[in-house]
Specification:
About 15% of the residues lie in helices and about 40% in strands. It has helices spanning about 35-45, 60; strands at about 1-5, 10-15, 15-20, 25-30, 50-55. The protein has one domain: XisI-like (TATA-Binding Protein, 2-Layer Sandwich), CATH 3.30.310. The protein is α+β, with helices and mostly antiparallel strands and about 70 residues long. It is elongated and about 45 Å long. The longest helix has 7 residues, at about 35-45. The strands form 2 sheets. It has a 3-stranded mixed sheet, with helices on one face. A two-stranded antiparallel sheet has the order 1-2. Strand 3 (about 15-20) and strand 4 form a beta hairpin.
């Protein structure tokens, strides 16, 4: 999900949310929203072991409760 457009003469472009599907897992690459998108996915029946917090290093992922990769 991206914001694209113009505000007067100012160009607007920014990534709000970026999810990838890799090897059967959902990778959250960017989350610049107020939503806890990982928890929203869990609430909708996705296993925590199928969600990777991709914007954290592998070292930090071990503490997240979600998949490492």
């Amino acid at each position: 999900m991206i914001a694209v457009g113009w505000d007067g003469k100012q160009r607007i472009y920014g990534c709000s949310l970026h999810l990838d599907l890799k090897d059967g897992k959902i990778w959250i690459q960017v989350n610049n929203t107020e939503l806890d998108i990982a928890q929203e996915l869990v609430n909708r029946g996705i296993s925590k072991q199928d969600i990777v917090i991709g914007f954290h290093t592998k070292y930090l992922r071990q503490f997240s409760g979600y998949a490492l990769a």
